[in-house]
Amino acid sequence: MKKLILSIIFILSATLAFAQVTLSPATFTAEDEVTITLDVTGTPLAGTQDVYIWIFSNSDLPAEIIKKDGLTNGQWTNSADAAKMTKTGTNIFTFKFTGTTLFGQSPAELINFGFLAKTKDGTKQTQDYKPYKFDPLVFVPMQFRVFPSKMDQTDMTTVYFHQDLATDQNLQRMFDVKVNLVFYNDATPVPAVVATRTALVTVKESNILYSYSFIPERLITLTAGTKLTKFTYQFTGSVKDANGANVPVAGPVTEVVYTPFN
Amino acid sequence: MKKIKYILLATIIATIWGCKPEEFGPIVGSEENFLKEMQGTWSLTKVTQVDQNAVSNGWPYKQLDITNIYPYKELVVSFQGDASGKPSTFTITPGNSPKIADLNSGNWSVDNTKAPTVITLTNNGQTSTLTLGSYANLKNGKFYLKREKKVNGKTILVYQYEFTKK
Question: For A144-176, what is each residue's pLDDT tens digit?
């Protein structure tokens, strides 16, 4: 019982800790520009005007993996000006970086990063926020994918289900495959659902491949000025039970964040 | 022997006299050719999405033919020229096709009249650019445009449009 309570406390504290950090885009490679947004409310830095980032690569990985501090870090008791985070609101700070540039490591060397926020002289600091994974630059076949890999709300997007790559037995056997789509706007701090479309009939491109293509403005009604920031997709279908009856099943929900083209 | 000498001398003189630089026609067409050939009414016959990220990383799934997902083939574009053959007005009639540019009418211009690569569409201060693909098939009634979407100057996604002259 004691172990259970401790586990719950640990999970809750970890969840609360991560709730203070937002990364944009949500998924990124070591060559993408990433914006960290940190809310220091409830940390020793709450109310502080000048906050500095202390960032590091490949946290908590085996010794043979090269770990580096961010080139902007400076010294613990005297952070460099380049490490100063931009204040965008009360207790809200942002920092932009590109992994390969900030750590001076190649994409192949960068697996994850972590960071903390501190005062310039290091007398106050937050806890560590880590690890945040870089997407690989090599293609990894997965049961779910989208084409193109980056798009915005005006683009044709195709979601795919490669049934031959499914690891779950229900997904391997699923038939009558459909897809659910949920679109989100840019509301802060939490994007709100703009529209949901369920049970969209997929195209069976082969015995192992299902797809569904759409342009959001053709699929849902967008009021003028609505900006979509992401969508989620979930493939659903049926399997037969022991009596031969159809039983509904659903795959996991996958999130896709729109890319702001410029 | 003397005769042979004269014949050789005459042959050398004739050879040297005959070696003159030959004038070749222009490799690219004159400006009137391309610009005039681009003018007219064109139907959209094929649309391809290219994931430039996948291309540069050497990943599979580099491009997708999306022509028949929405009625792209309903779209018709018309490029007009003035009396001297220079670009003047354009109209895009999309029908039920998704849009391929931000403007549907106005004026058009090119970056280089002899070898155009970029078409700029303008209307009331608004501009929209499309990149010209190969114009080797202009004479055969095929015309290619590209729309590139970029992040910080890096091309991420490309739409390739194939048009056929009406």
Answer: 999 999 899 999 999 999 999 999 999 999 999
Q: Name the 3-class secondary structure at B142.
A: strand
Q: Which of A33, A97, A150 to mutate to test the interface with B (most CBs of B within 10 A)?
A: A150
Where along chain B do its domains lie? 29-165
Which CATH number fits the domain A144-257, given the four candidates 1.20.1300, 1.10.287, 2.60.40, 1.20.1440? 2.60.40
In eight-state DSSP terms, residue B28 is S
Q: Identify the CATH class of A12-133.
A: mainly beta
The Cα–Cα gap between A5 and A1 comes to 6
Best probe of the B interface among A34, A149, A202, by most B CBs < 10 A, is A149
For B14-38, the pLDDT digits (tens) are: 666 666 666 655 555 455 478 888 9
pLDDT tens digits along A65-109: 899 999 999 999 999 999 999 999 999 999 999 999 999 998 878
Which residues of chain B lie closer than 8 angstroms to A137, CB-CB? Answer: 57
User: Do residues A204 and A212 make contact, with C-beta atoms less than 8 angstroms apart?
Assistant: no
Residue numbers in B near A149 (CB within 8 A):
51, 53-54
A158 and B64 within 8 Å at the Cβ level: the answer is: yes
Omega of the bond leading into A131 within 30 degrees of 0 (cis): yes
| Other beta carbons within 10 Å of A30 | 25
Which CATH number applies to B29-165?
2.40.128
The answer on pLDDT for A262 being more than 70 is yes
CA distance B100 to chain A (A): 10
- Between residues B37 and B12, which one has the greater pLDDT? B37
CA angle A43, A48, A49 (to 5 degrees): 145
Domain-wise residue ranges, chain A: 12-133, 144-257
Contact criterion met (CB < 8 Å) for A156 and B49: yes
Q: Which residues of B touch A (CB under 8 A)?
A: 49-51, 53-54, 57, 59-61, 64, 66, 69-70, 98, 149-152, 156-157
